[in-house]
Amino acid sequence: MKRAPWLLALMLMVAGCGLSDGDNAADGGDSPGAECEPGQVDGDLNLYNWSEYMDPELIAGFEQEAGVDVTETFYDSNETMLAQIEAGGAAYDLVVPSDYMVETMIDADLLIPLNRDALSNLANLDPDFTAPPFDPDGAYSVAYQWGTTGLGFSYDVVPDPTQLSWGLIFDPEMGAAVAGRVQMLNDERETLGAALKYLGYSLNSTEPDEINEAAELVREAKDRIATFDSDAYDDLLIQGETMVAHGYSGNFFTAFEAADAWDSFGYGIPIEGGTAWVDNMAIPTTAQNVCTAHAFIDYLLDAENGAALTNFNFYASPNAAAEEFILAEILEDPAIYPPPDVMDKLEFIAGVGEASTLYADAFVEAKS
Amino acid sequence: MTGEEATTRGWVNRALALNGWVVFLFLYAPIAVLVLFSFSADRNVGSWGGFSMEWYQRMLANDPLMRSLRNSLLVALLSTLVSTVLGTAAAIALERYRRWATRGVFDALLYLPVIIPDVTMAVMLLMWFTTIGWSLSLTTIVLSHIAFNISFVAIVVRARLANMDPSLEEAAADLYAGRWRTFRRVTLPVIMPGVLGGALLALTLSLDDVVVTSLVQGPGSTTLPVFVFGLIKRDVTPEINAVSTVMLAASMVLVMVSLGFQRRGDSERVR
Q1: Which domains are present in chain B?
Q2: Is this structure's pTM higher than 0.95?
Q3: Does B235 touch chain A (CB under 8 A)?
């Protein structure tokens, strides 16, 4: 979700040293899936996840049901997690990488293919998530939670959220009213992606012309953009520093909830479309207890457990069967569960291969 | 002194005093807000919802949070203890053999860990542990913290050693004190403020560290700062304010104790 440039550098440093072929790496890659029965466990579970992203009661429930201990370890970015898995010094059985990171890890042979026979609840997964662009066959990952990237706004400047448009940022006329009170994410894929969407292109475009056109748009809008920021945008909006804020759905909701400011602020996907991000469960090659990891994935794919997770962390569940157990206030919130016409306009951020340097360079140039 | 000079002086003094207050306000206002809102019943930082211990209760009930707090304290205490001993010894060794031709080289080597960016240090340590085949755990975090703390302690202690009058140790030797006794009764008391200063610095660096720890941690050994930085999927709750307040109180006690020691050391010297 959040990418720190120095962490990318770090990732390359670790990768460059070729530690991934270390002894700790289990034989992933070639041997497809482990031989596990549904619910079968082969030891305790080492779960590597973001902080407060998992309901402690679900952990307790699994410990009781499966008769194993779960040890939770936490990371602060996809890149830190990648570096640790790549080095292979710690025996994590299950990790929760974001979309683009799944692709990176598959490419680096760091994930073990899943054994579908061991996942009895796999059919509960919403078809929208069974073949994401970052793992086209769903062979390595199962969606955990998902959300969107769009615009948070003050109702003063967006009286009608159904007409929300990226033009607030990119159109000089429409943006005149909020000039200097706009923030965009400091993230090349998200911010250039928004510009690409506004122009009617795919946000995974690999065409240099389209990427440059998007960068040019960001450059022109720069005078009206107060800051490129990925950390405090929700606070900036609520404190009135900005009127339009570009960011991740969940962060806006928790901020609106905390400030009791639902009447003054809203969040939405612009009519031109936006990004859907999804975090996924995957079994890294460092896993010692592959069957337990499968059992845990299956446990979360259960309808009631999937619902419990969403009721705990307020992110949308990719588990279609879970919906009947999810709190109505969450399910009915169009910002968490967008209506079908908005869903159609969302795109996952996929890896763009060689073009990633184009994005990085164009974004740096556009900002400067 | 003419009257005019006195006025100027009074004005300067007042400005300096004012500056002192501004500095303290600048340092402590944010901390005061943090402490205050850790007792607020309202989840929203910025609006006071009445006095409540709710966040402290929630903090105690939050297992992953308490575990990371325990890990942080354990790592900080162990790494401070070891790096203070090793760093002080290193400082004494370097000071004693300062006439050696290679001294410059050792100086540079000692300063290097202070200068290298955290990320580089983190990657180096991660690669080192995996190369020698160690599994990552609380132990590797402690060892890493010792590794980056030794230099800081050594540098602080050396500054104190450099100002020490060599005749003090010579006098002790003249009076037939053995080397160990000279160290215990003469050298150590003189450099004690430096040693304590170095230890406090080490403790702070260890409690603060995110970059190195997040890379060398193993299953179940997440420390408090890594846990807090991992909260980006959720908003930071007042539980974190509560933990921070507890940590703050603990470090204040530590600073008081160390100041007390230093003052005692100073007054003994006067006697």
Answers
A1: 63-270 (1.10.3720.10)
A2: no
A3: yes
